[in-house]
Specification:
By secondary structure, this protein is of the alpha/beta class. It folds into two domains: 3-296, Alkaline Phosphatase, subunit A; 308-407, Arylsulfatase, C-terminal domain (2-Layer Sandwich), CATH 3.30.1120. 32% of the residues lie in helices and 19% in strands. The strands form two sheets. It has an eight-stranded mixed beta sheet with strand order 4-3-5-1-6-7-2-8, sandwiched between helices. A hairpin with a 3-residue loop joins strand 10 (329-335) and strand 11 (339-344).
Protein backbone atom coordinates (compact mmCIF):
# COMPACT_ATOMS: atom_id res chain seq x y z
CA UNK A 1 0.00 0.00 0.00
CA UNK A 2 1.37 3.39 -0.97
CA UNK A 3 1.65 6.44 1.24
CA UNK A 4 0.54 9.99 0.42
CA UNK A 5 1.52 13.45 1.53
CA UNK A 6 -0.82 16.36 0.81
CA UNK A 7 0.87 19.75 1.05
CA UNK A 8 -1.47 22.74 1.17
CA UNK A 9 0.49 25.99 0.87
CA UNK A 10 -1.79 28.66 2.29
CA UNK A 11 -2.70 31.57 -0.03
CA UNK A 12 -0.68 30.14 -2.93
CA UNK A 13 -2.10 31.69 -6.10
CA UNK A 14 -2.54 29.56 -9.20
CA UNK A 15 -0.09 31.76 -11.10
CA UNK A 16 2.61 32.08 -8.43
CA UNK A 17 4.85 29.12 -9.28
CA UNK A 18 7.38 29.03 -12.08
CA UNK A 19 5.79 25.95 -13.63
CA UNK A 20 2.49 27.87 -13.77
CA UNK A 21 4.04 30.88 -15.48
CA UNK A 22 4.75 32.84 -12.31
CA UNK A 23 7.68 35.13 -11.64
CA UNK A 24 8.83 33.24 -8.53
CA UNK A 25 11.96 31.11 -8.94
CA UNK A 26 10.70 27.68 -7.85
CA UNK A 27 12.97 25.00 -9.39
CA UNK A 28 12.19 22.40 -6.70
CA UNK A 29 8.46 22.66 -7.33
CA UNK A 30 9.08 22.81 -11.07
CA UNK A 31 11.10 19.55 -10.96
CA UNK A 32 8.30 17.86 -9.05
CA UNK A 33 5.79 19.20 -11.58
CA UNK A 34 7.84 17.77 -14.46
CA UNK A 35 7.14 14.31 -12.99
CA UNK A 36 3.49 14.98 -12.26
CA UNK A 37 0.08 15.72 -13.61
CA UNK A 38 -0.59 19.46 -13.49
CA UNK A 39 -4.21 20.56 -13.35
CA UNK A 40 -3.97 24.05 -14.77
CA UNK A 41 -7.46 25.29 -13.94
CA UNK A 42 -8.41 24.23 -10.42
CA UNK A 43 -11.13 26.04 -8.47
CA UNK A 44 -11.44 26.02 -4.69
CA UNK A 45 -14.77 25.53 -2.93
CA UNK A 46 -14.23 28.56 -0.68
CA UNK A 47 -11.96 31.62 -0.44
CA UNK A 48 -10.56 30.88 3.03
CA UNK A 49 -9.02 27.98 4.89
CA UNK A 50 -11.61 26.17 7.02
CA UNK A 51 -14.39 25.56 4.48
CA UNK A 52 -11.89 25.05 1.67
CA UNK A 53 -9.86 22.32 3.39
CA UNK A 54 -12.97 20.60 4.73
CA UNK A 55 -14.33 20.38 1.18
CA UNK A 56 -10.96 19.20 -0.13
CA UNK A 57 -10.71 16.36 2.39
CA UNK A 58 -14.32 15.16 2.20
CA UNK A 59 -15.29 15.64 -1.45
CA UNK A 60 -18.35 17.60 -0.30
CA UNK A 61 -18.98 21.29 -0.92
CA UNK A 62 -18.40 23.38 2.17
CA UNK A 63 -21.90 24.89 2.29
CA UNK A 64 -23.30 21.35 2.53
CA UNK A 65 -20.92 20.66 5.42
CA UNK A 66 -21.98 23.86 7.19
CA UNK A 67 -18.41 24.67 8.22
CA UNK A 68 -17.37 28.30 8.65
CA UNK A 69 -15.41 28.37 11.93
CA UNK A 70 -12.16 26.89 13.22
CA UNK A 71 -13.76 25.15 16.20
CA UNK A 72 -16.52 23.28 14.38
CA UNK A 73 -16.47 19.47 14.25
CA UNK A 74 -16.91 17.98 10.79
CA UNK A 75 -20.31 16.33 10.22
CA UNK A 76 -20.16 12.59 10.71
CA UNK A 77 -22.33 11.64 7.72
CA UNK A 78 -19.48 12.29 5.26
CA UNK A 79 -16.37 10.15 5.56
CA UNK A 80 -13.19 12.15 5.20
CA UNK A 81 -10.04 11.03 3.44
CA UNK A 82 -8.45 10.87 6.90
CA UNK A 83 -11.06 8.35 8.07
CA UNK A 84 -10.80 6.28 4.89
CA UNK A 85 -7.01 6.08 5.24
CA UNK A 86 -7.21 5.09 8.91
CA UNK A 87 -9.80 2.40 8.14
CA UNK A 88 -7.42 0.97 5.52
CA UNK A 89 -4.66 0.71 8.12
CA UNK A 90 -2.57 3.74 7.22
CA UNK A 91 -1.07 5.96 9.87
CA UNK A 92 -2.78 9.33 9.66
CA UNK A 93 -1.20 12.59 10.79
CA UNK A 94 -1.41 16.27 10.08
CA UNK A 95 0.80 19.25 10.80
CA UNK A 96 -1.14 22.51 10.93
CA UNK A 97 -0.14 26.14 11.29
CA UNK A 98 -1.55 26.34 14.83
CA UNK A 99 -2.90 23.36 16.75
CA UNK A 100 -5.47 25.61 18.47
CA UNK A 101 -7.11 26.35 15.12
CA UNK A 102 -7.15 24.01 12.12
CA UNK A 103 -8.60 20.53 12.92
CA UNK A 104 -9.12 21.58 16.51
CA UNK A 105 -12.22 19.37 16.76
CA UNK A 106 -11.38 16.93 13.95
CA UNK A 107 -9.72 14.07 15.81
CA UNK A 108 -9.53 11.88 12.70
CA UNK A 109 -6.98 14.33 11.22
CA UNK A 110 -4.44 13.14 13.82
CA UNK A 111 -2.87 16.51 14.52
CA UNK A 112 0.77 15.75 15.39
CA UNK A 113 2.18 19.26 15.64
CA UNK A 114 2.65 22.61 13.98
CA UNK A 115 3.90 22.89 10.42
CA UNK A 116 5.88 25.91 11.64
CA UNK A 117 8.05 23.46 13.61
CA UNK A 118 9.82 21.96 10.62
CA UNK A 119 12.20 19.91 12.76
CA UNK A 120 9.28 18.06 14.36
CA UNK A 121 7.73 17.43 10.96
CA UNK A 122 11.01 16.01 9.65
CA UNK A 123 11.36 13.77 12.71
CA UNK A 124 7.86 12.43 12.11
CA UNK A 125 8.72 11.60 8.51
CA UNK A 126 11.95 9.90 9.54
CA UNK A 127 10.14 7.80 12.14
CA UNK A 128 7.33 6.69 9.84
CA UNK A 129 8.81 6.64 6.36
CA UNK A 130 8.85 2.81 6.29
CA UNK A 131 5.13 2.39 6.98
CA UNK A 132 2.12 3.43 4.88
CA UNK A 133 0.74 6.79 5.92
CA UNK A 134 -1.42 9.73 4.96
CA UNK A 135 0.27 12.96 5.97
CA UNK A 136 -1.45 16.34 5.62
CA UNK A 137 0.68 19.48 5.89
CA UNK A 138 -0.80 22.96 6.04
CA UNK A 139 2.17 25.18 5.20
CA UNK A 140 1.65 28.65 6.64
CA UNK A 141 4.45 30.96 5.60
CA UNK A 142 3.01 31.82 2.18
CA UNK A 143 0.15 33.49 4.12
CA UNK A 144 0.29 37.16 5.09
CA UNK A 145 2.61 38.53 6.53
CA UNK A 146 4.80 36.28 4.31
CA UNK A 147 7.44 35.77 7.02
CA UNK A 148 9.10 32.38 7.49
CA UNK A 149 9.40 32.18 11.25
CA UNK A 150 7.06 30.88 13.97
CA UNK A 151 4.87 33.62 15.41
CA UNK A 152 2.35 33.91 18.18
CA UNK A 153 -1.12 34.95 17.03
CA UNK A 154 -0.71 38.40 18.55
CA UNK A 155 2.63 38.92 16.79
CA UNK A 156 1.11 37.60 13.58
CA UNK A 157 -1.72 40.13 13.77
CA UNK A 158 0.61 43.05 14.47
CA UNK A 159 2.88 42.15 11.56
CA UNK A 160 -0.06 41.50 9.24
CA UNK A 161 -1.56 44.88 10.11
CA UNK A 162 1.72 46.53 9.10
CA UNK A 163 1.63 44.75 5.73
CA UNK A 164 -1.98 45.83 5.22
CA UNK A 165 -1.03 49.41 6.04
CA UNK A 166 1.67 49.30 3.37
CA UNK A 167 -0.79 47.89 0.84
CA UNK A 168 -3.21 50.74 1.53
CA UNK A 169 -0.57 53.33 0.67
CA UNK A 170 -0.70 52.88 -3.11
CA UNK A 171 0.34 50.96 -6.21
CA UNK A 172 4.10 51.23 -5.65
CA UNK A 173 3.76 49.84 -2.14
CA UNK A 174 1.53 47.06 -3.46
CA UNK A 175 4.31 45.95 -5.78
CA UNK A 176 6.65 45.80 -2.80
CA UNK A 177 4.26 43.52 -0.91
CA UNK A 178 3.86 41.36 -3.99
CA UNK A 179 7.65 41.01 -4.09
CA UNK A 180 7.57 39.99 -0.40
CA UNK A 181 4.96 37.37 -1.26
CA UNK A 182 7.05 36.14 -4.19
CA UNK A 183 10.05 35.65 -1.89
CA UNK A 184 7.82 33.71 0.51
CA UNK A 185 6.81 31.39 -2.35
CA UNK A 186 10.48 30.95 -3.27
CA UNK A 187 11.40 30.06 0.32
CA UNK A 188 8.61 27.48 0.35
CA UNK A 189 10.01 25.89 -2.81
CA UNK A 190 13.75 26.23 -2.20
CA UNK A 191 14.20 26.17 1.60
CA UNK A 192 11.32 24.25 3.16
CA UNK A 193 10.26 21.79 0.47
CA UNK A 194 13.74 20.27 -0.15
CA UNK A 195 13.96 19.34 3.53
CA UNK A 196 10.69 17.44 3.24
CA UNK A 197 11.58 15.76 -0.05
CA UNK A 198 14.99 14.70 1.31
CA UNK A 199 13.38 12.44 3.94
CA UNK A 200 10.27 11.44 1.98
CA UNK A 201 10.44 8.15 0.09
CA UNK A 202 9.36 9.59 -3.24
CA UNK A 203 9.33 6.12 -4.84
CA UNK A 204 6.50 4.89 -2.64
CA UNK A 205 4.56 8.09 -1.93
CA UNK A 206 1.88 10.02 -3.76
CA UNK A 207 2.76 13.70 -3.44
CA UNK A 208 0.14 16.40 -3.79
CA UNK A 209 0.84 20.13 -3.87
CA UNK A 210 -2.10 22.50 -3.80
CA UNK A 211 -3.55 25.45 -1.90
CA UNK A 212 -6.68 26.25 0.06
CA UNK A 213 -7.19 29.58 -1.75
CA UNK A 214 -5.33 32.30 -3.61
CA UNK A 215 -4.60 35.91 -2.70
CA UNK A 216 -5.65 39.36 -3.85
CA UNK A 217 -3.91 42.67 -3.28
CA UNK A 218 -6.79 45.09 -2.79
CA UNK A 219 -6.95 46.00 -6.49
CA UNK A 220 -10.74 45.85 -6.65
CA UNK A 221 -13.05 48.51 -5.31
CA UNK A 222 -14.75 46.25 -2.78
CA UNK A 223 -11.42 45.30 -1.17
CA UNK A 224 -9.43 48.51 -1.64
CA UNK A 225 -9.86 49.60 1.98
CA UNK A 226 -8.15 46.40 3.22
CA UNK A 227 -9.66 46.53 6.69
CA UNK A 228 -8.33 43.08 7.62
CA UNK A 229 -6.70 39.99 6.13
CA UNK A 230 -10.05 38.70 4.88
CA UNK A 231 -9.98 41.43 2.26
CA UNK A 232 -6.99 39.63 0.74
CA UNK A 233 -8.92 36.36 0.71
CA UNK A 234 -12.25 35.41 2.20
CA UNK A 235 -14.45 38.34 1.21
CA UNK A 236 -14.70 37.89 -2.57
CA UNK A 237 -15.24 35.08 -5.08
CA UNK A 238 -13.07 36.24 -7.97
CA UNK A 239 -10.50 33.99 -9.61
CA UNK A 240 -7.51 35.51 -7.83
CA UNK A 241 -8.78 33.97 -4.58
CA UNK A 242 -10.50 30.85 -5.96
CA UNK A 243 -7.99 29.47 -8.48
CA UNK A 244 -5.21 27.38 -6.97
CA UNK A 245 -2.43 25.09 -8.21
CA UNK A 246 -2.98 21.33 -8.16
CA UNK A 247 0.01 19.10 -8.88
CA UNK A 248 -0.12 15.34 -8.24
CA UNK A 249 3.03 13.24 -8.51
CA UNK A 250 2.75 9.44 -8.46
CA UNK A 251 5.28 7.25 -6.62
CA UNK A 252 8.48 7.28 -8.63
CA UNK A 253 7.20 10.09 -10.82
CA UNK A 254 5.54 9.83 -14.20
CA UNK A 255 4.79 12.83 -16.35
CA UNK A 256 1.18 12.74 -17.48
CA UNK A 257 1.25 16.31 -18.75
CA UNK A 258 -1.02 19.26 -18.21
CA UNK A 259 -4.78 19.14 -17.88
CA UNK A 260 -6.28 22.47 -19.08
CA UNK A 261 -9.91 21.59 -18.35
CA UNK A 262 -11.66 22.86 -15.24
CA UNK A 263 -11.41 20.70 -12.11
CA UNK A 264 -12.09 21.42 -8.42
CA UNK A 265 -10.36 20.93 -5.09
CA UNK A 266 -13.51 19.07 -4.04
CA UNK A 267 -12.29 16.36 -6.43
CA UNK A 268 -9.16 15.69 -4.38
CA UNK A 269 -10.64 13.28 -1.78
CA UNK A 270 -12.26 10.87 -4.28
CA UNK A 271 -9.19 11.11 -6.50
CA UNK A 272 -6.77 10.15 -3.73
CA UNK A 273 -9.12 7.43 -2.48
CA UNK A 274 -8.98 5.84 -5.92
CA UNK A 275 -5.25 6.31 -6.41
CA UNK A 276 -4.45 4.82 -3.00
CA UNK A 277 -7.03 2.05 -3.26
CA UNK A 278 -8.72 3.10 -0.03
CA UNK A 279 -12.43 2.58 -0.72
CA UNK A 280 -15.14 3.33 -3.24
CA UNK A 281 -15.44 6.98 -2.21
CA UNK A 282 -15.47 8.21 -5.79
CA UNK A 283 -18.74 6.37 -6.39
CA UNK A 284 -20.65 7.60 -3.35
CA UNK A 285 -23.74 9.52 -4.54
CA UNK A 286 -23.43 11.98 -1.64
CA UNK A 287 -20.16 13.41 -2.97
CA UNK A 288 -19.85 16.56 -5.03
CA UNK A 289 -16.32 15.70 -6.12
CA UNK A 290 -15.39 13.18 -8.79
CA UNK A 291 -12.27 11.07 -9.18
CA UNK A 292 -9.59 12.38 -11.51
CA UNK A 293 -7.55 9.17 -11.18
CA UNK A 294 -7.89 8.30 -14.88
CA UNK A 295 -6.40 11.68 -15.81
CA UNK A 296 -3.30 10.78 -13.82
CA UNK A 297 -3.00 7.07 -14.55
CA UNK A 298 -4.29 6.92 -18.12
CA UNK A 299 -3.92 10.46 -19.44
CA UNK A 300 -7.68 10.75 -19.87
CA UNK A 301 -9.55 14.04 -20.09
CA UNK A 302 -11.68 14.91 -17.06
CA UNK A 303 -15.46 15.06 -17.49
CA UNK A 304 -16.93 18.49 -18.23
CA UNK A 305 -17.29 20.01 -14.78
CA UNK A 306 -18.44 23.21 -13.19
CA UNK A 307 -17.36 24.52 -9.80
CA UNK A 308 -19.46 25.90 -6.96
CA UNK A 309 -17.71 28.18 -4.46
CA UNK A 310 -19.24 29.88 -1.44
CA UNK A 311 -18.41 32.75 0.86
CA UNK A 312 -19.58 32.93 4.45
CA UNK A 313 -20.11 36.00 6.58
CA UNK A 314 -16.91 37.18 8.24
CA UNK A 315 -16.45 34.95 11.30
CA UNK A 316 -14.43 37.67 13.05
CA UNK A 317 -17.40 40.04 12.99
CA UNK A 318 -19.78 37.18 13.77
CA UNK A 319 -18.43 34.94 16.57
CA UNK A 320 -21.80 33.13 16.78
CA UNK A 321 -23.08 31.43 13.67
CA UNK A 322 -26.62 32.33 12.61
CA UNK A 323 -29.27 29.64 12.65
CA UNK A 324 -30.25 30.12 9.01
CA UNK A 325 -28.06 29.05 6.06
CA UNK A 326 -29.09 32.08 4.00
CA UNK A 327 -27.68 34.32 6.75
CA UNK A 328 -24.41 32.39 7.00
CA UNK A 329 -23.62 31.85 3.29
CA UNK A 330 -23.77 35.32 1.84
CA UNK A 331 -22.39 34.73 -1.67
CA UNK A 332 -22.26 31.86 -4.16
CA UNK A 333 -20.22 31.49 -7.33
CA UNK A 334 -20.56 29.12 -10.25
CA UNK A 335 -17.58 28.71 -12.57
CA UNK A 336 -18.19 26.97 -15.87
CA UNK A 337 -15.89 26.43 -18.82
CA UNK A 338 -16.68 29.93 -20.08
CA UNK A 339 -18.67 31.88 -17.50
CA UNK A 340 -18.49 32.97 -13.86
CA UNK A 341 -21.72 33.67 -11.97
CA UNK A 342 -21.63 35.41 -8.58
CA UNK A 343 -24.84 35.75 -6.56
CA UNK A 344 -25.48 37.41 -3.20
CA UNK A 345 -28.82 35.99 -2.02
CA UNK A 346 -29.61 38.60 0.65
CA UNK A 347 -29.70 41.43 -1.90
CA UNK A 348 -30.17 39.30 -5.03
CA UNK A 349 -27.07 41.01 -6.47
CA UNK A 350 -25.79 39.24 -9.57
CA UNK A 351 -22.54 39.43 -11.50
CA UNK A 352 -21.81 37.54 -14.70
CA UNK A 353 -18.44 37.42 -16.48
CA UNK A 354 -17.45 35.94 -19.83
CA UNK A 355 -14.07 34.43 -18.94
CA UNK A 356 -13.10 33.89 -22.58
CA UNK A 357 -13.05 37.62 -23.29
CA UNK A 358 -12.70 38.97 -19.74
CA UNK A 359 -10.51 36.62 -17.70
CA UNK A 360 -9.88 39.36 -15.15
CA UNK A 361 -13.61 39.50 -14.33
CA UNK A 362 -13.89 43.26 -14.72
CA UNK A 363 -16.92 43.65 -17.05
CA UNK A 364 -20.19 42.61 -15.44
CA UNK A 365 -22.72 41.44 -18.03
CA UNK A 366 -26.34 42.27 -17.10
CA UNK A 367 -28.19 38.97 -16.68
CA UNK A 368 -30.93 40.01 -19.11
CA UNK A 369 -28.39 40.26 -21.92
CA UNK A 370 -27.77 36.51 -21.83
CA UNK A 371 -31.12 34.93 -20.95
CA UNK A 372 -29.94 31.52 -22.22
CA UNK A 373 -27.66 31.35 -19.15
CA UNK A 374 -30.56 31.44 -16.70
CA UNK A 375 -29.85 27.82 -15.74
CA UNK A 376 -26.71 28.99 -13.93
CA UNK A 377 -28.69 31.23 -11.62
CA UNK A 378 -31.13 28.40 -10.96
CA UNK A 379 -28.17 26.19 -10.12
CA UNK A 380 -27.00 28.63 -7.45
CA UNK A 381 -30.50 28.92 -6.01
CA UNK A 382 -30.47 25.14 -5.70
CA UNK A 383 -27.11 25.22 -3.93
CA UNK A 384 -28.48 27.64 -1.34
CA UNK A 385 -31.30 25.17 -0.73
CA UNK A 386 -28.66 22.50 -0.01
CA UNK A 387 -26.70 24.70 2.39
CA UNK A 388 -26.68 24.16 6.15
CA UNK A 389 -25.26 25.57 9.36
CA UNK A 390 -23.01 23.12 11.14
CA UNK A 391 -22.60 22.39 14.82
CA UNK A 392 -20.81 24.81 17.13
CA UNK A 393 -19.94 23.97 20.73
CA UNK A 394 -20.87 26.78 23.18
CA UNK A 395 -17.64 26.45 25.16
CA UNK A 396 -15.63 26.78 21.97
CA UNK A 397 -17.54 29.92 20.98
CA UNK A 398 -16.63 31.60 24.26
CA UNK A 399 -12.99 30.58 23.89
CA UNK A 400 -12.99 32.06 20.40
CA UNK A 401 -14.49 35.31 21.67
CA UNK A 402 -11.76 35.60 24.28
CA UNK A 403 -9.03 34.83 21.73
CA UNK A 404 -10.42 37.48 19.36
CA UNK A 405 -10.54 40.02 22.19
CA UNK A 406 -6.90 39.26 23.03
CA UNK A 407 -5.98 39.86 19.40
CA UNK A 408 -7.85 43.15 19.36
CA UNK A 409 -10.63 42.08 16.99
CA UNK A 410 -13.43 42.52 19.52
CA UNK A 411 -14.08 45.17 22.13
Amino acid sequence: MTSAVIIVADSLRHDALGCMGGEAQTPTVDRMASESTIFERTVSAAPWTVPSIASMMTGVYSHRLGLAKWEQPWPGEYRSLFASAAQAGLRVASFVFDTAHLFRRVSEAGVAGSSQDTDSLIRWLEEHRNEPFLLFIHYWWTHIPYVDKPMTMSAWKQTSDRVLEVLRSGDAARKGVQALYRRAVERFSEVWLPRVFDVLDMDSTWTVLTSDHGESWGERGETSKLADVFDLHGNTLYDEVLRVPLIIRPPGGSRSGRIPQLVRTVDLAPTMSDLMGLDEASRRPSLDGVSLADCIQKGAHPPELDAVSVMNRDFVDLPDLPASPDELWNAFALTTRRYKYIWRPQTDTRQLFDLDVDPGETQNIPAQELPDLESGWRRLTGELARAKVGEVMPKDVEKTRQRLRNLGYLE
